[in-house]
Backbone:
């Protein structure tokens, strides 16, 4: 990531991966067996329900799929004119929207883990909208192997690419997603709302750190420009 180094954005997206694992655990275990971030799972459920055999849910996966697509589209639209691979204010704004959606969904699960069918659809849709925006943010920052919401391609690369690959990074991404899901499932024992609030807090921390780094980069660039201008003026 030009001007920022690879370390910071990689760590920040790892944190978002952990948070996404927490959110997906909540959506699957407490909101009717749908995934807020893993659209492959929802598509499989919808496809398997087409023949009409069994009692697979249709409305939940369809709502989540549409909400995730909308979040990704809105995120992509917001970032279209932003320079790629460089954290900017728009990334911060999108993550703040993610925080608002995830944290705003928590009260519906505060009293009980099963808010009813309509409530579950609304909450799972809001969470999918949030993770769609997060996925668009991660895609725009383009840190290799860290899309934050899915790990299928990362696992494929780890198994298929052989020597010379960034296997440590890929393995850590897989472990981070799994650890986030485990943490989310564990917090559900205290209440699903707490898992969502914890995920929102992590996303907020990422937004704050990312924005701080962006401001530091801007100040450094301004000092470089000023120093260069002064040297040119003295030379003239």
Residues:
């Amino acid at each position: 990531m030009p001007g920022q180094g690879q370390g910071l954005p990689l760590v920040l997206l790892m944190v978002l991966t952990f948070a996404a694992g927490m959110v997906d655990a909540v959506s699957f275990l407490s909101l009717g067996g749908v995934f807020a971030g893993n659209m492959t799972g929802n598509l499989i459920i919808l496809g398997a329900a087409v023949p009409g055999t069994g009692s697979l849910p249709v409305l939940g996966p369809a709502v989540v799929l549409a909400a995730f697509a909308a979040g990704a589209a809105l995120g992509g639209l917001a970032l279209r004119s932003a320079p790629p691979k460089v954290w900017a204010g728009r990334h911060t704004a999108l993550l703040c929207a993610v925080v608002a959606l995830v944290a705003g969904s928590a009260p519906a699960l505060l009293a009980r883990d099963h808010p009813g069918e309509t409530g579950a659809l609304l909450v799972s849709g809001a969470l999918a909208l949030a993770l769609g925006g997060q996925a668009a943010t991660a895609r725009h920052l383009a840190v290799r192997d860290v899309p934050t919401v899915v790990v299928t391609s990362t696992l494929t690369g780890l198994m298929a690419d052989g020597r010379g690959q960034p296997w440590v990074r890929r393995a850590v991404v897989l472990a981070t997603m799994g650890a986030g899901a485990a943490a989310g499932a564990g917090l559900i024992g205290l209440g699903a709302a707490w898992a969502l609030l914890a995920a929102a807090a992590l996303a907020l921390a990422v937004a704050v750190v990312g924005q701080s780094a962006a401001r530091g980069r801007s100040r450094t660039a301004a000092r470089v420009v000023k120093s260069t201008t002064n040297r040119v003026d003295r030379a003239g």
